[in-house]
Design brief:
The protein is of the alpha/beta class. It is built from 13 helices and 8 strands. Helix 4 runs parallel beside helix 10 (about 260-275) and helix 6 packs across helix 7 (about 175-190). The structure holds zinc ion. Zinc ion binds next to loops.
Length: about 325
Protein backbone atom coordinates (compact mmCIF):
# COMPACT_ATOMS: atom_id res chain seq x y z
CA UNK A 1 0.00 0.00 0.00
CA UNK A 2 1.33 3.45 -0.91
CA UNK A 3 1.81 6.33 1.45
CA UNK A 4 -1.49 7.65 2.75
CA UNK A 5 -1.25 11.34 3.45
CA UNK A 6 -4.83 12.14 4.33
CA UNK A 7 -4.72 15.19 6.62
CA UNK A 8 -5.70 13.73 9.95
CA UNK A 9 -4.57 14.78 13.40
CA UNK A 10 -1.92 12.83 15.26
CA UNK A 11 -4.44 12.03 17.98
CA UNK A 12 -6.49 9.98 15.52
CA UNK A 13 -3.71 8.07 13.86
CA UNK A 14 -4.04 5.18 16.30
CA UNK A 15 -7.14 4.23 14.34
CA UNK A 16 -4.91 3.39 11.41
CA UNK A 17 -2.40 1.64 13.59
CA UNK A 18 -5.15 -0.43 15.19
CA UNK A 19 -5.90 -1.77 11.75
CA UNK A 20 -9.52 -0.72 11.90
CA UNK A 21 -9.55 0.15 8.24
CA UNK A 22 -13.27 -0.37 7.70
CA UNK A 23 -14.17 2.35 10.21
CA UNK A 24 -11.63 4.66 8.65
CA UNK A 25 -13.04 4.10 5.17
CA UNK A 26 -16.49 5.03 6.47
CA UNK A 27 -15.08 8.16 8.14
CA UNK A 28 -13.14 9.21 5.03
CA UNK A 29 -16.20 8.69 2.81
CA UNK A 30 -18.33 10.72 5.22
CA UNK A 31 -15.82 13.57 5.15
CA UNK A 32 -15.77 13.53 1.35
CA UNK A 33 -19.57 13.52 1.20
CA UNK A 34 -19.72 16.42 3.69
CA UNK A 35 -17.22 18.41 1.61
CA UNK A 36 -19.24 17.78 -1.55
CA UNK A 37 -22.35 18.95 0.27
CA UNK A 38 -20.63 22.18 1.35
CA UNK A 39 -19.47 22.87 -2.17
CA UNK A 40 -23.00 22.35 -3.50
CA UNK A 41 -24.42 24.68 -0.86
CA UNK A 42 -21.78 27.33 -1.53
CA UNK A 43 -22.43 27.09 -5.27
CA UNK A 44 -26.17 27.50 -4.90
CA UNK A 45 -25.64 30.44 -2.53
CA UNK A 46 -23.43 32.04 -5.19
CA UNK A 47 -26.15 31.57 -7.80
CA UNK A 48 -28.73 33.03 -5.56
CA UNK A 49 -26.72 36.19 -5.04
CA UNK A 50 -25.49 36.73 -8.60
CA UNK A 51 -27.45 37.96 -11.55
CA UNK A 52 -28.94 35.80 -14.25
CA UNK A 53 -26.22 36.51 -16.80
CA UNK A 54 -23.83 34.31 -14.84
CA UNK A 55 -24.45 30.83 -16.14
CA UNK A 56 -23.16 27.48 -14.93
CA UNK A 57 -20.62 27.59 -17.72
CA UNK A 58 -19.22 30.95 -16.63
CA UNK A 59 -19.01 29.76 -13.04
CA UNK A 60 -17.12 26.66 -14.11
CA UNK A 61 -14.87 28.74 -16.34
CA UNK A 62 -13.93 30.94 -13.42
CA UNK A 63 -13.61 28.39 -10.67
CA UNK A 64 -12.58 25.08 -12.17
CA UNK A 65 -9.74 23.83 -14.31
CA UNK A 66 -11.08 22.47 -17.59
CA UNK A 67 -7.90 22.08 -19.66
CA UNK A 68 -9.47 20.39 -22.67
CA UNK A 69 -12.32 22.83 -23.17
CA UNK A 70 -12.08 26.42 -24.34
CA UNK A 71 -14.57 28.68 -22.55
CA UNK A 72 -17.22 30.28 -24.74
CA UNK A 73 -18.80 32.61 -22.23
CA UNK A 74 -15.88 34.22 -20.51
CA UNK A 75 -15.75 35.60 -17.03
CA UNK A 76 -12.02 35.86 -16.82
CA UNK A 77 -9.99 35.53 -13.65
CA UNK A 78 -8.17 38.63 -12.45
CA UNK A 79 -5.12 39.66 -14.42
CA UNK A 80 -1.89 37.88 -13.71
CA UNK A 81 1.39 39.26 -15.01
CA UNK A 82 1.52 36.51 -17.65
CA UNK A 83 -1.90 37.52 -19.00
CA UNK A 84 -1.84 41.07 -20.38
CA UNK A 85 -5.17 42.90 -20.51
CA UNK A 86 -7.37 42.04 -23.47
CA UNK A 87 -10.94 42.76 -24.48
CA UNK A 88 -11.31 45.55 -21.96
CA UNK A 89 -13.43 48.29 -23.51
CA UNK A 90 -12.21 51.87 -23.39
CA UNK A 91 -15.01 53.94 -21.88
CA UNK A 92 -15.61 57.54 -22.92
CA UNK A 93 -17.38 58.28 -19.64
CA UNK A 94 -16.10 57.97 -16.10
CA UNK A 95 -16.81 54.87 -14.11
CA UNK A 96 -18.22 55.39 -10.63
CA UNK A 97 -19.13 51.77 -9.98
CA UNK A 98 -19.33 48.36 -11.62
CA UNK A 99 -22.19 45.94 -12.18
CA UNK A 100 -24.76 46.63 -9.46
CA UNK A 101 -26.13 43.09 -9.80
CA UNK A 102 -22.91 41.27 -9.03
CA UNK A 103 -21.44 40.85 -5.54
CA UNK A 104 -18.13 42.36 -6.65
CA UNK A 105 -16.19 45.14 -5.02
CA UNK A 106 -13.03 46.83 -6.28
CA UNK A 107 -10.52 48.12 -3.76
CA UNK A 108 -8.55 51.04 -5.20
CA UNK A 109 -5.48 52.64 -3.61
CA UNK A 110 -4.42 56.17 -4.58
CA UNK A 111 -1.30 58.31 -4.22
CA UNK A 112 1.38 55.62 -3.93
CA UNK A 113 3.71 53.96 -4.25
CA UNK A 114 4.90 54.76 -0.76
CA UNK A 115 8.01 53.01 0.56
CA UNK A 116 6.58 52.66 4.08
CA UNK A 117 2.84 51.97 3.67
CA UNK A 118 2.52 50.26 0.28
CA UNK A 119 4.52 47.15 1.32
CA UNK A 120 2.31 46.83 4.43
CA UNK A 121 -0.81 47.03 2.28
CA UNK A 122 0.59 44.52 -0.22
CA UNK A 123 1.29 42.09 2.63
CA UNK A 124 -2.33 42.40 3.82
CA UNK A 125 -3.69 41.89 0.29
CA UNK A 126 -1.53 38.81 -0.11
CA UNK A 127 -2.55 37.40 3.29
CA UNK A 128 -6.26 37.76 2.44
CA UNK A 129 -5.78 36.73 -1.23
CA UNK A 130 -7.29 39.98 -2.49
CA UNK A 131 -6.48 41.64 -5.81
CA UNK A 132 -6.80 45.42 -5.99
CA UNK A 133 -6.03 48.39 -8.24
CA UNK A 134 -3.27 50.91 -7.51
CA UNK A 135 -3.66 54.39 -8.97
CA UNK A 136 0.00 55.34 -8.80
CA UNK A 137 1.57 58.78 -9.14
CA UNK A 138 4.09 58.94 -12.00
CA UNK A 139 7.06 60.52 -10.28
CA UNK A 140 6.69 58.11 -7.36
CA UNK A 141 6.60 55.18 -9.79
CA UNK A 142 9.92 56.46 -11.10
CA UNK A 143 11.27 56.76 -7.54
CA UNK A 144 10.05 53.33 -6.36
CA UNK A 145 9.75 51.03 -9.40
CA UNK A 146 10.41 47.91 -7.31
CA UNK A 147 7.30 48.55 -5.22
CA UNK A 148 5.22 48.96 -8.38
CA UNK A 149 6.67 45.72 -9.74
CA UNK A 150 5.67 44.00 -6.50
CA UNK A 151 2.12 45.41 -6.81
CA UNK A 152 1.95 44.00 -10.33
CA UNK A 153 3.59 40.69 -9.46
CA UNK A 154 0.86 40.02 -6.92
CA UNK A 155 -1.78 40.28 -9.66
CA UNK A 156 -2.95 43.81 -8.92
CA UNK A 157 -3.73 46.31 -11.67
CA UNK A 158 -1.43 49.32 -11.97
CA UNK A 159 -3.33 52.44 -13.02
CA UNK A 160 -2.55 56.09 -13.69
CA UNK A 161 -3.03 58.90 -11.14
CA UNK A 162 -1.15 61.59 -13.14
CA UNK A 163 2.54 62.46 -13.06
CA UNK A 164 2.65 64.86 -10.10
CA UNK A 165 -0.89 64.96 -8.69
CA UNK A 166 -1.97 68.47 -9.78
CA UNK A 167 -5.54 69.66 -10.02
CA UNK A 168 -5.89 68.93 -13.72
CA UNK A 169 -8.86 71.23 -14.27
CA UNK A 170 -6.50 74.20 -13.75
CA UNK A 171 -4.18 73.09 -16.56
CA UNK A 172 -4.27 73.51 -20.34
CA UNK A 173 -5.30 70.50 -22.42
CA UNK A 174 -1.70 69.76 -23.56
CA UNK A 175 -0.49 69.99 -19.95
CA UNK A 176 -3.26 67.59 -18.88
CA UNK A 177 -2.24 65.12 -21.56
CA UNK A 178 1.41 65.45 -20.56
CA UNK A 179 0.49 64.62 -16.94
CA UNK A 180 -1.33 61.50 -18.12
CA UNK A 181 1.17 60.22 -20.66
CA UNK A 182 4.23 60.90 -18.48
CA UNK A 183 2.75 58.75 -15.74
CA UNK A 184 1.84 56.05 -18.25
CA UNK A 185 5.41 56.05 -19.55
CA UNK A 186 6.78 55.63 -16.01
CA UNK A 187 4.42 52.70 -15.38
CA UNK A 188 5.37 51.10 -18.70
CA UNK A 189 9.05 51.49 -17.80
CA UNK A 190 8.46 49.83 -14.41
CA UNK A 191 6.27 46.85 -15.38
CA UNK A 192 6.37 46.68 -19.17
CA UNK A 193 2.64 47.36 -19.58
CA UNK A 194 0.84 50.65 -20.19
CA UNK A 195 -2.05 51.42 -17.87
CA UNK A 196 -5.59 51.42 -19.23
CA UNK A 197 -7.27 53.16 -16.29
CA UNK A 198 -6.87 56.73 -15.06
CA UNK A 199 -8.11 58.60 -12.01
CA UNK A 200 -7.80 62.39 -11.86
CA UNK A 201 -6.27 63.72 -8.63
CA UNK A 202 -8.92 64.86 -6.12
CA UNK A 203 -11.54 63.51 -8.54
CA UNK A 204 -11.38 66.94 -10.15
CA UNK A 205 -12.37 66.72 -13.78
CA UNK A 206 -14.20 68.37 -16.61
CA UNK A 207 -14.90 67.32 -20.15
CA UNK A 208 -11.38 68.30 -21.28
CA UNK A 209 -9.78 66.04 -18.65
CA UNK A 210 -12.05 63.20 -19.75
CA UNK A 211 -11.19 63.79 -23.38
CA UNK A 212 -7.42 63.73 -22.72
CA UNK A 213 -7.66 60.48 -20.76
CA UNK A 214 -9.72 58.95 -23.55
CA UNK A 215 -7.24 60.20 -26.13
CA UNK A 216 -4.45 58.53 -24.12
CA UNK A 217 -6.41 55.28 -24.26
CA UNK A 218 -7.38 55.25 -20.59
CA UNK A 219 -10.81 54.91 -19.00
CA UNK A 220 -11.45 57.43 -16.23
CA UNK A 221 -12.35 55.73 -12.96
CA UNK A 222 -13.89 57.50 -9.97
CA UNK A 223 -15.46 55.81 -6.92
CA UNK A 224 -18.73 55.53 -5.01
CA UNK A 225 -17.44 54.37 -1.63
CA UNK A 226 -14.75 55.87 0.59
CA UNK A 227 -14.01 56.14 4.29
CA UNK A 228 -12.28 59.48 3.62
CA UNK A 229 -9.09 58.07 5.09
CA UNK A 230 -7.16 61.17 3.94
CA UNK A 231 -8.95 63.12 6.69
CA UNK A 232 -7.45 60.75 9.30
CA UNK A 233 -10.82 60.29 11.03
CA UNK A 234 -9.74 57.21 12.99
CA UNK A 235 -9.82 53.53 12.10
CA UNK A 236 -13.38 53.04 13.37
CA UNK A 237 -14.87 55.78 11.20
CA UNK A 238 -12.96 54.71 8.10
CA UNK A 239 -14.27 51.17 8.53
CA UNK A 240 -17.87 52.07 9.38
CA UNK A 241 -18.29 54.50 6.50
CA UNK A 242 -16.86 52.11 3.92
CA UNK A 243 -19.02 49.23 5.18
CA UNK A 244 -22.13 51.41 5.15
CA UNK A 245 -21.59 52.46 1.52
CA UNK A 246 -20.51 49.02 0.28
CA UNK A 247 -22.86 47.45 -2.26
CA UNK A 248 -22.73 45.28 -5.37
CA UNK A 249 -20.32 46.78 -7.89
CA UNK A 250 -18.85 49.36 -5.49
CA UNK A 251 -15.51 51.03 -6.11
CA UNK A 252 -13.80 51.76 -2.80
CA UNK A 253 -11.28 54.60 -2.62
CA UNK A 254 -8.54 54.45 0.01
CA UNK A 255 -4.92 55.61 0.02
CA UNK A 256 -1.53 53.95 0.28
CA UNK A 257 0.37 57.24 -0.05
CA UNK A 258 0.06 61.01 0.22
CA UNK A 259 0.34 61.20 4.01
CA UNK A 260 0.23 59.14 7.19
CA UNK A 261 -1.67 55.98 6.24
CA UNK A 262 -1.35 54.07 9.52
CA UNK A 263 -5.13 54.27 10.01
CA UNK A 264 -5.75 52.90 6.51
CA UNK A 265 -3.35 50.01 7.12
CA UNK A 266 -5.12 49.19 10.38
CA UNK A 267 -8.59 49.46 8.82
CA UNK A 268 -7.86 47.31 5.77
CA UNK A 269 -8.01 43.80 7.32
CA UNK A 270 -11.25 44.71 9.13
CA UNK A 271 -12.84 45.98 5.90
CA UNK A 272 -11.75 42.95 3.88
CA UNK A 273 -12.95 40.47 6.50
CA UNK A 274 -16.33 42.16 6.95
CA UNK A 275 -17.04 42.43 3.22
CA UNK A 276 -15.96 38.84 2.57
CA UNK A 277 -18.34 37.75 5.33
CA UNK A 278 -21.11 39.65 3.53
CA UNK A 279 -20.44 37.56 0.41
CA UNK A 280 -18.54 40.09 -1.70
CA UNK A 281 -15.75 39.08 -4.05
CA UNK A 282 -12.83 41.48 -4.41
CA UNK A 283 -11.95 42.20 -8.03
CA UNK A 284 -9.68 44.54 -9.94
CA UNK A 285 -11.06 47.48 -11.89
CA UNK A 286 -10.30 45.51 -15.03
CA UNK A 287 -12.52 42.67 -13.86
CA UNK A 288 -15.18 45.17 -12.83
CA UNK A 289 -15.24 46.66 -16.34
CA UNK A 290 -15.28 43.23 -17.98
CA UNK A 291 -18.30 42.33 -15.87
CA UNK A 292 -20.31 45.40 -16.87
CA UNK A 293 -23.42 44.40 -18.79
CA UNK A 294 -24.01 47.87 -20.19
CA UNK A 295 -21.67 50.86 -20.26
CA UNK A 296 -22.37 53.68 -17.80
CA UNK A 297 -25.21 55.96 -18.80
CA UNK A 298 -24.54 59.54 -19.78
CA UNK A 299 -27.19 60.92 -17.48
CA UNK A 300 -25.12 60.11 -14.40
CA UNK A 301 -22.59 62.75 -15.33
CA UNK A 302 -24.47 65.17 -17.51
CA UNK A 303 -22.79 67.93 -15.52
CA UNK A 304 -19.44 66.85 -16.95
CA UNK A 305 -20.78 66.69 -20.49
CA UNK A 306 -22.18 70.18 -20.15
CA UNK A 307 -18.71 71.40 -19.22
CA UNK A 308 -19.37 71.98 -15.52
CA UNK A 309 -16.46 71.16 -13.29
CA UNK A 310 -16.90 68.44 -10.71
CA UNK A 311 -16.02 70.01 -7.40
CA UNK A 312 -13.02 68.80 -5.48
CA UNK A 313 -13.81 65.80 -3.35
CA UNK A 314 -11.81 67.11 -0.48
CA UNK A 315 -9.78 70.20 0.16
CA UNK A 316 -8.13 68.34 3.05
CA UNK A 317 -6.62 65.92 0.56
CA UNK A 318 -5.38 68.84 -1.50
CA UNK A 319 -3.81 70.45 1.57
CA UNK A 320 -2.22 67.17 2.62
CA UNK A 321 -0.58 66.93 -0.77
CA UNK A 322 0.65 70.48 -0.60
CA UNK A 323 2.19 69.85 2.82
CA UNK A 324 3.72 66.60 1.55
CA UNK A 325 3.28 64.91 4.88
CA UNK A 326 5.22 61.69 4.78
CA UNK A 327 5.83 59.80 7.96
ZN1 LIG B 1 -4.84 61.36 -5.14
Amino acid sequence: MGTFNFPISVAHRHLFQAGNKRIMIVIVLSVILAMLGSITLATSAFWHKTSSHLTTKTFITKHAVVPTQKPILVRKPSLSPSRPPTHVPLLAYPLFNGNTHLPEIALTFDDGPNPYYTPQILAILQRYEVKATFFDVGYLVEDYPNIVRQEYKQGNIIANHSWSHPQLTLLSAPAMLSQITSASNAIKAAIGVRPTFFRPPYGAMNRTVLAQAYYAGETTVLWDDTGEDWKLPGVGLIVSKILRLARDGAIILIHDGGGNRAQTVAALPIIITALKNRGFHFVTIQQLVEDLVTPPSQSAYSNILSGTKISLTSTTELLAWKRKVYT
